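Lab notebook page, bench 4
Experiment: in silico fold of construct C2
Operator: M.H.
Input chain length: 378 residues
Purpose: comparison with the prior construct
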Amino acid sequence: MITIVRSILSGIAMSLALYATAQSVDLKNWPEKANPISVGRLVVQRFVESPHNSFKPPSPPKSITYPEVCTWYGALKFAEISQNRTLLDKLTQRFMPFFDTEKHLVPRPWHVDYAVFGTVPLELYRQTKNNTFLEMGMRFADAQWSIPIDSPQTVKDAYQKFLDKGLTWQTRYWIDDMYMITMVQSKAFQVTGERKYIDRAAHEMLVYLDTIQKENGLFYHAPDAPFFWGRGNGWMAAGMSELLSALPNDNPNKSAILAAYRRMMASLKRYQREDGLWGQLIDKPESWPETSGSAMFTYALITGVKNGWLDAKEYTPIARKAWIALVGYINKEGDIANVCEGTNRKNDYQYYLDRKQNTGDMHGQAPILWCIYALLKK
């Protein structure tokens, strides 16, 4: 009788354990195809083997573009979290020609899309402590708040109006700015400890949020393009996540930025599709599933759960469902499909639905690597 009872109790315990595992708030246990380490190795190898600007490259490329920068940064974070020194060395060696034979590919930091390049040397410095990387990266961070000397006087006067408000002269109130600007400034703070970098990034973010965030927490592509375009919103989600991760608790703008982030995440929860992703136009179920914006949202959700900004019980299932859906779009070469091509704003609904769906575009490769870093981070 005792043996039978023990057997029953053992069975109950095992069932409860399996039930708990199945029902737990879990961003750790994955089916093999969704294992972050395995996916990370595949995607990062694809990047290491790719030439500069490999997706629709100019011939020859004129400068390094921001999708490559963002993918490079994701690869560096994967190298760090996986403690892969060999990968770090490869990513470092990929960069070294910019000081010599490929110097012409280093962009001038006169636009947000070019200024974000500084993120890579700053992260390389953080991981290698090579001052050569620090000097280059800080030039990009400082340039965002320094008017170019060769600008015409009328342009300087217009730029100065932004600086007088504590904003970068690169301010445009475009949604992707809040990744391109705040990333470089956050990284500059991380490597120098100087508060001016993170404080001005937070101020910039708050002004953008006050200016362009809608009541539902989402963002139009532009005032004259009133559509909730997926990847555009993804830049805001990722930018807020990166900034909040670096922002000291005593910054006076942190609580407002966190509240804006939570409003956005609540809206994304509402609009997540049955397949786990989000549409090319977030609030339009008839639009096609788009992976670059979806990956950025997934990164923001994972980061929020891991940092306690979001209720884990409520948001972990959303992030988990999205990650499993995303890896289903990655082929054996490590390329992700259904990535919206580069898209300028346009007040035309059909224009967004008709955008080309690319495979292997670094707009999509980058946030996949960000997700992996967030998943593996303790």
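Observations: The chain is about 60% helix and 0% strand. Confidence is low (pLDDT under 50) at residues 1-25.
Next step: discuss at group meeting.
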